[in-house]
Sequence to fold (814 residues):
Amino acid sequence: MTLYTDLISDLAQKNDKKIVMLVMDGVGGIHAEESPETALEAAVTPNLDALAAKSALGRTIPTDWGITPGSGPGHLALFGYDPRIPEHRIGRGVLEALGIDYELRPGEVAARGNFATIDADGNISDRRAGRPSNEECARISALLDEKIAGREGIEITVRPVREHRFCVFFHGDGLQPDLEDTDPQKTGVPPLKASARIEGGAAKTVRVVQTFIDQAREVLRDEPQVNGLNLRGFSSHPGLPTFQELYDLNPAAVAAYPLYRGVGSLVGMKVLETGTTPAEEFATVAKAWDDHDFFFTHIKKTDSSGEDGNLEAKVAAIEAVDAALPDLLGLKPDVLAIVGDHATPYVMSGHSWHPVPLLVKGPNCDIDGATRYTETEALKGSVGTMSADRLLGYLLANAGKLGKYGA
Amino acid sequence: MTLYTDLISDLAQKNDKKIVMLVMDGVGGIHAEESPETALEAAVTPNLDALAAKSALGRTIPTDWGITPGSGPGHLALFGYDPRIPEHRIGRGVLEALGIDYELRPGEVAARGNFATIDADGNISDRRAGRPSNEECARISALLDEKIAGREGIEITVRPVREHRFCVFFHGDGLQPDLEDTDPQKTGVPPLKASARIEGGAAKTVRVVQTFIDQAREVLRDEPQVNGLNLRGFSSHPGLPTFQELYDLNPAAVAAYPLYRGVGSLVGMKVLETGTTPAEEFATVAKAWDDHDFFFTHIKKTDSSGEDGNLEAKVAAIEAVDAALPDLLGLKPDVLAIVGDHATPYVMSGHSWHPVPLLVKGPNCDIDGATRYTETEALKGSVGTMSADRLLGYLLANAGKLGKYGA
Fold:
C-alpha cells in the first residue's frame, strides 16, 4: 500500500451514494500530421457532449510518465492500487488464469504453458507445436488434467487457452511462485529444468513442477506434434486488499471479457453476467443497481479498434457508448467517471503512455464549460492531470465518501 | 535508484532510433510587472516556431516544487536520476573536480580548497588570502602538489581553480569522504581540525587530511599572504549506474564547459571535443552521428546571460540556437527534446525554481498546435508538467525504446 491509499482508506466513510466508473478501454489518442483528429474528436457524440458541459474534465497518467501499461496495471491504477510497486504486480500466469475465468485460490501457483514439439534427441523443434487447433489444445489439456497424478499431495489442474497456449495450476500446501521460466526461448535445445529464482528457494514447488513436466512428457509420448511443453510466468494471487476493506464499498464489475472480470474480482468486485454491447452492459448495471454502490463498467471495443489502427471502428465504438449513455444516466449515478485504462492511439495501433482524457460528473465536481469529452478539452479541464491511482480517491471524495483529513 | 528508474530500466529495449536532448541551460523565465516578456518571448525564432508547430510542449519541474537547483542536480534530473535522493547527490569537491576536467578515480576523495591568510597567532585573518591572481593560485597549487608527501601511501594531487580556489584529491586504499569542512566560516579563529561527520568514522582519511593541512602550512610558512587553507565539500565519485547499464543507450555529451562534460561523463557519456557556439556544437553532433544513439547537447549562454540579468544577451543566445537549429534538424533525430536544467529568469539574475518549458518532437509525440516554444505555450502543452527526472523515460518511450509494462 502507498501513503495515499492508506490515507484514503482511513478517511473512507460509507453513505448511500453510487459511483459508476465507465472505463472505455484505450480511449484517448494523439494528433499526428496526417491524422489531425483523434477518434474522440472525430466521433459524433451528442450525449457525451451534453454531459461534458455539466462536468469537470481532466487527464490521468496511466502508470507514470512514458510508461505504456498493459491491461493489468492499467486497471489496477484505476482501482487505486499504485501499479509501480512490486506487490501490486500481477504475474502473467495469474493474468492468463483471469483471462479464462479460472478462479484462483489463495496460495495456488499459476503458470502459462506453451505446447511444444520435442524431437528424438529431446530438443525443442517447434516452440508452438505447429499451432494446434483450439480443439486439439482442449483435448491435450484435458488429457493432462486427467492423467497427471502430481506428487506430495499437490492438486494439478490443466486448462486450455487457445492454439498452443494453456494454463496449469498447482494447489496445496507450501508452494511458492518464485520460479524461472522453463522456456529457453529457442529451438534446438531441451526445455529448461524447473528452477527457483533464488538458489535453494521454493524447493517443493520446483520438485512438483519438474514432476509435472516429466509426467506430461510421458502422457504425451505418442503424440506426433504436441509432445512437450514450456512453462512461463509462475505467479500466485496477489492477495490485494479489497474495495470492501479499503474503501467500505460494495463493488460490481460489468465486463464482457474475462481478463477485466478477473481484475475486478482480484479487488473484491462481484462479477455480473452481462452481454457485450454498451447497451447490454448498461442494462446489467441497471438490473443490479440496488445491490451495489460502485460499478466498474468496461468497454472493450475502443481498445481493440485502436489496436487494429482502425479509426472508423474506434469512432463507431465511441458512438455506440454515446448512443447507450442515456440508459446509464437514467440511473442517476451520484458520481460518474468516464476514463480509459490507457490511451490506444489508432495511429500507433497499440497502447501508449499518453495522458487519458477523464470526465467526472458529480454534485460538486466543478463545471468547466467544456463543449466535448476530447483530449483537447480534457487538457484544459479543472481536474488537471493526475496519476491514475488517485482517481478512485477522487471519486470517493466527489461522492461524499471521504471524511475531512485532520481538524 | 527510485522505483521509476527501476521500472524504466526493466522496460528499456535497444533499437536504432536516435534521441537528441538539447539543454539550453537556464532557459525559461518569468513575467514581471516591468518585464512583461520573457527572453523566449522576446527572441525572434522562426526555426523554433516552426518546430513547435509540429511538436508537443510541456514543462519540467527541475527538482521539486520551490527548489532551485544548481547545475549538478539540474542535469542529473534530466538524465533520469532523482536528484533528491542522497546517493544521487554530487559533492562539491566532485563538482569542482568536474569543472577543471579532472578525471576522478573510484574511491578517490575530492575537496574544494580556499587559500587563506593566517596570522602569527594561528588565526584566520583573510578567508580568501587577499584574492590572489590566477597565476598565483597556479603557482601555490603546483608548489603544494610537488612538495607534499602525504602519509600511509595516499597519493595527493593539488590543482588550481582560480583566485583563492583550488582542489585537492586523495587517492589510495581505505579512504572515505564523510568529513566535516575545516572552514570555520569566520576570521579571528584557527581553521578547524579535520574531523569525521560521524564520531570515530573515516579515521584514516581524517589522519591523511590533517597531515596534508599541516604539511601545507609548513610548505607555505614563508608566503606573505597565501600561508594557509580551508577544505570543504569532501566527496567522492557517486558511482551512478550509467546510461549503458540503465537504458542500454550509447550516449555522447557535447558541451563546451567542463562541468557539463563532467556531469555527462559521470553517467557514462562519451565526451566529445567541441567548439563553443551552437553551430559548432551541432557540427560535433553531426560528426559523431553514426556512433551514438543519445546526444546530450549543452548550451551555456542562455544561463550565463540570465545570471547577468541581461535580457538582450539571453535573447541573442536563444536566437543563436535558433539560427543553427536547421543543422541539428537536418540530422533527422528520431526524438528531439529541447529543455533547460532550470529556469534563469533575467529579472532574478540567477537560477530559479520555476517550471522549465519543454518541447518534444517524435513520431508519436502528439501535436498541440502551439505557435512558439515559450513559457506561455508550454503551459498549454499536452505533455503537461512533469518532474524533470521523468523526462529521460518519456524520451525513451517516444523513441520506442520502452517495452509495455505488464500484460
In short: The CA atoms of residues 114 and 165 of chain B lie 5 Å apart. The two ends of chain B are 24 Å apart (CA to CA). The mean pLDDT of chain B is 96.
